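Researcher: I'd like a structural prediction for the single chain below. Treat it as a standalone chain; there are no partners to consider.
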Amino acid sequence: MPIGRPLDLTANVATKRISVVATANQTDFTVTGGYRINQLGVYRNGIRLVDGRDFIATDGSTVVLLSGATVDDVVEFQVFDSFNVSDAIQANSSEQTIEGNLTVTGTLDVQSGEAGNTAYIGISSNGTNIGVAKTLNFLGVGNTFEATGDTIAVKIKGGGGGGLGTAINYQGGTASPFSYIDMQAEVEENLLLDSSKAGVSSSYIISVIPTISVATGAAVTVGAGKTMIIDVLKIGDL
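Model: Treating it as a single chain, here is the predicted structure.
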């Protein structure tokens, strides 16, 4: 029959043992690394002592024997603690810092973001921070998305009205026959005006912007069956 009380351990509890050789009449012992109060087993020469009757352990660091030890007595401390993997993500921690890159395989679901927002991504416009959002919704027709590695390029085309400039809508949201026209347009890359961009039938391509600057190295090509007219209506002068 074993002497003392048996120990029952659960799967999420780890222990460590620290042994000390006592001097004559020694009562005070310092537990290396400390202990959790009421989570400590104390043994003297293999016999487990009773908390409050044989020893006192109330400060998380020192154990006091109520009866002084004999020289060369072996006093052993069994320290119980929660098992936590070093540097692991802690589910209930309010703040954590991860050094280096974080790779997630699967879905990343962020429940709360800055200022109470549920956020996946930060949104910027021309280098200016707009805010955070979970979903981006692009309205209108003709929007295209091109993925290159980790970057998605978004191209947004105007819709409604005459198809030139920025469409103007009635108060109820219905498209009107008018559009805002800027005084100047910049052509920054090659532009081919053919059936893929200007309609499948023979047609006129009209620019109502009085000043069109073509960047060095870029070209504007009018496709077969198309006729381009520059500012034929003189709307840019209004």
